[in-house]
Each structure stands twice: as C-alpha cells, then as structure tokens.
Amino acid sequence: MRHLVWFRNDLRAADNTALHEACRDREAQVLAVFIATPAQWHEHDMAPVRERFLWRNVAALSAQLDALGIPLLVRTVDTFADVPACLQSLCHEHAISQVFANREYAVNEVARDTHASQVLAADTIALQLYHDAVIQPPGLLTGAGSPYTVFTPYKRAWLRQLLSAPPVVLPLPRQRHARFPCQADAVSLPSSLPMDVWWPAGEHEASKRLQQFVDERVSDYGQQRDRADLEGTSQLSPWLAVGAVSARQCWHLALQANRGRMEGGDEGIQAWINELVWRDFYTHVLASFPRVSRGKAFRESTEAIRWRDDEAGFAAWCEGRTGIPIVDAGMRQLQQTGWMHNRLRMITAMFLSKNLLVDWRRGERFFMQQLIDGDLAANNGGWQWCASTGTDAAPYFRVFNPVSQSQKCDPSGAYIRRYVPELASLDTREMDTRAIHNPPDSLRIALGYPLPIVDLSASRQRAIEAFQRLRG
Ligand SMILES: Cc1cc2nc3c(=O)[nH]c(=O)nc-3n(C[C@H](O)[C@H](O)[C@H](O)COP(=O)(O)OP(=O)(O)OC[C@H]3O[C@@H](n4cnc5c(N)ncnc54)[C@H](O)[C@@H]3O)c2cc1C
User: In the prediction, which pLDDT does 430 show?
Assistant: First the structure.
C-alpha cells in the first residue's frame, strides 16, 4: 500500500493527524508532498516574510520526514486550480492508493480540496481530510442549532466538548519498515533578510520555545500580556500559523503545567488557554460564515458605513508616521520584524478604522501583506473586532484613546523608544516619560517627529456618529 501525505500549513511531523493516519498501517509506504502556489499566495496577500518562513519550515520538515523514511517532494504550480491535476499525476507516477491531508477552512481552500477530492475519486483514490488546525473542530452549534457567534457561550460549549472527548496529542510516527522508493526533492530557499533571524524555523525550535514559555513565563501572562515593553506573550504565532507547532500541543503543555485543571489553577495559564480558545473561535467563525472569507463584514448592517477616502492618512499609518507615538511604534515594529504585539494590533487597527475612519479591509490587507503569522481567521476576526463590524466585536462607542493605551501598555516608553528613534533621546525622567506618549508640539518640532495627523477627540466623535447614522 502506498500513501501520500499532502502538507499545507501543518509543517510538522509530531501531532499531525493526517501524517499519523497515513502511517497507522506499519506496512504502508508513505510519501509526502508540499505544493507551492505562488500566484495564489500573492492573491491571498501572503507577506514575503511569511513565505520565506514557510519555505524554511518546509526544509526543516523534509529533514524530519527523511529520518522516518518518508521522502518529501516539492511541486510548484500557479494557483489552487492547478493543484488537483498536480496531485493526480503524482498519484499515477507513484502508484498511490490514498491521500491524507489536514483540513483548511477558508472558502478557496475548501473549494480546492473539494475539487481535488473529485479528481482523485475519478481514479478511485480517496482524499482523507482531518480536523487538525484547531483544538476543537469548528462548527459548534447552539441549542437552537446555529453556529455560536458570541465568544463566552462558545467557550462554555468548547469546554463541555473538550471534557466529553479530550483531544489527544499524537506522538511522532515511528520510522517506516520500508522507505518509500524515491529521493526527497531539494528545497530551494529564498534568500534571507535580516528580520528572518528573529524567526528560526522548524518544529524543534517551536517546541523549545513553547516549553520555555510554559516553564518560565506563562504564570506571568495574566499580568504581562498587555505590556508591549515586556516579553509577556509566547510569540509562538508564526509557528502556529505554518503549523510547526500545533494548538493541541500548546494547550496540552499548558494543561499539564496547570496540573490537569481545565478551570481554575494558575491565572496566567488560564489566560493563555483563553487566547488559544479565541484562535479556535475565529476559525469556527470563518468556517461557519463563508462571507467572512469573501471580504464581507460579519454584521451586514455595517456595510453601509461611509468609510473615508484618506490616502495620505492611510499612507502615514502604514509607514508609522501618524504623529501618535504608540501607533507609529506598532507599525514600525510590524515593518521591521514582521510581527506586532497583540495590544498594538488592537491600538493600530482601532486608530485606522475609527480615528481615521478608513475601511478596516484596507488595514486587514496591509497586515496580511506584512505579518509573518498572517492568518485569515485571526486577522479578519481581530480587524472586525476593532472596527465593530464583527462577531462579539467592541461596541462602536468604545473607541480606544491611543495615548492612555500607550501609558498602560508601555508605561516607561521603552517600546516607543525602541521603534521610534526620533523620540529615543527622551530619557526616563518623570516629565519625559509622560511626554513620550504625546509630546508637546515644540518638542516634536525640535526632535523632527510629526504633529498628530488627526485630532483624537474630534475623530472619535466622527466615528461614533458614522455608526449612529446606521441606526437612525
Ligand atoms: C487587528 C488584529 C489582527 C490580528 N492578526 C492576526 C494574524 O494574522 N495571525 C494571528 O495568528 N493572530 C492575529 N491576531 C491575534 C493576536 O494579535 C496574535 O495571535 C498574537 O499577537 C500573537 O502573539 P503571541 O504568539 O505572543 O500570542 P499569545 O498571547 O502567546 O497567544 C498564544 C496564541 O494564541 C493565539 N491568539 C492569541 N490571541 C489571539 C486572538 N486575539 N485571536 C486569535 N488568536 C489568538 C495565537 O495563535 C497565539 O500565538 C490579530 C489581532 C488583531 C487585533
């Protein structure tokens, strides 16, 4: 028997459901493939830093699989439409009887898999798909039979489901009795940029970071997670996005550290697991409401908002020169590292969609084009939360004040100083610490830092009125 495992954003050998199932029969010979679709990635706004990271993880996976006797082939086609024929010819060439893959939930990915399944079925080859990307499969239904749209009741149902069937973390498959009789393809890596050093690839690296975070920092997560100036969060999102670590592995290790308690126990661990549930929730929303993949607002009434055409404001936001120090620091962290702290994502997204009243879809797209952890479900969920157009979103009248947010998430101004060199000379003396969050005009001029591009309180009022008009 010959099995093919089709890897996508699940680039690890341990705790990989599709790989585990393909290897279940010890006698089966197992081959693996990764199919690159550069034109599709471009259409989906995949960030170059994410693409480079993806390739480095493909290379790490290839070495890992090779040691198990599973060669990894690499194929490149243009778009998802070309994938079924590519798989079909591989199956013919290598006399494959079954193909195994883990599900992806956005509409184009689902259509690709349906098409591939039909093409393979015509040759009596089954495509077996598994839920693997999340801790709980999406699609949890309320008592009335509709998908949950509010986080708190979703989380309660998620917990009930978890207690009735706790997910199992799968071990690394054992080495095959017989290696698949072909050579692995060499993985050609795109050239690296300096920011790539922040993000070493591979599941060993991911597991090491997960273990370190759980051993050393997770207990402080509850207090430190909103602090941009501290390393208070796991920074595991890039590895989760390409699947070099699974959400189940994260959850399981956190649960162990909490002595097996799902509720109660260490507050930091509870808060961290809560974020993993948010990740599941947004994937559930994406899978249950296809309009979310198609660029539509979850709350359809908000499609009537008159967003502003503000090219200069949008450019200033993208480039981190809005004159609001915390917003500029966040946007510059994104440009320099390919990653941004969650609190900063919220502050910058709210600033664009509320203070500038620019369509959230423009910001969502820009984030996707820059983020190493770009993920349609989480990115769309985060943007629609900030823009008050989504499920369980921030109420439209709760507009963050970026200056008071800045004082809370970066009290000493260390984060701003790191990313906004114009303000780095402001030292930590009492007056300067306060000034760094909103420098007086004279200081801005002296330091060559821009004046704010918008008045915070008038623009807040303008956003509230735009939402109020929907109701009137
Ligand atoms: C506007 C906006 C856009 C975002 N875009 C993305 C994105 O493209 N990709 C992405 O992975 N996350 C996104 N997030 C969610 C969140 O900001 C990141 O997951 C988090 O900052 C990653 O840092 P971390 O790994 O240190 O997270 P931790 O705080 O350590 O959390 C652990 C993991 O839980 C998940 N997670 C945490 N918070 C959230 C959340 N609010 N929603 C969904 N999952 C979460 C992530 O996988 C994260 O790695 C976005 C949030 C906002 C507000």
Answer: 56
| 307 is an active site residue | yes
Query: Is residue 339 annotated as part of the catalytic site, yes or no?
Result: no
Helix axes 311-319, 325-337, angle to 10 degrees: 60
Residues near 315 by Cβ (< 8 Å), separated by ≥ 6?
Answer: none
Amino acid at the residue 366: F
Closest CA to 380 of 370, 390, 394, 369: 390
- The conformation of residue 167, written as its DSSP 8-state character, comes to -
- Please tell me which residue in 51, 267, 275, 422 is annotated as part of the active site: 275
CA 86 and chain centroid, separation? 28
Q: Going from the N-terminus, what domains does the chain have, and what CATH number goes with each?
A: 2-133 (3.40.50.620), 134-169+204-288 (1.25.40.80), 300-471 (1.10.579.10)
Known catalytic residue at 272: no
What is the distance in A from the centroid of ligand 1 to the CA of 118?
A: 35
Residue 178 near residue 24, CB atoms below 8 Å: no
Question: Furthest-apart CA pair in the chain: how many Å?
Answer: 76
Mean pLDDT of 257-282: 95
pLDDT of residue 204 exceeding 70: yes
Say if CB 110 and CB 45 are below 8 A apart.
Answer: no
pLDDT higher than threshold 60 for residue 382: yes
pLDDT tens-digit map of 452-469: 999 999 999 999 999 999
Catalytic residue status for 383: yes
Instruction: Give CA separation, 380 vs 10, 51, 158, 374, in Å.
Output: 20, 19, 21, 10
Q: Is 261's pLDDT higher than 80?
A: yes
Q: Are strands 2-7 and 29-36 parallel, antiparallel or unpaired?
A: parallel
Q: Report pLDDT for 472.
A: 66
Percent of the chain residues topping a pLDDT of 70: 99
Three-state secondary structure of 273-327: HHHHHHHHHHHHHHHHCHHHHHCCCCCHHHHHCCCCCCHHHHHHHHHCCCCCHHH
Ligand 1 center from residue 93 Cα (angstroms): 41
pLDDT digits (tens, 9 = 90+) for 106-137: 999 999 999 999 999 999 999 999 999 999 99
Residue nearest to atom 20 of ligand 1 (CA): 342
How far does residue 387's CA lie from ligand 1's centre (Å)?
17
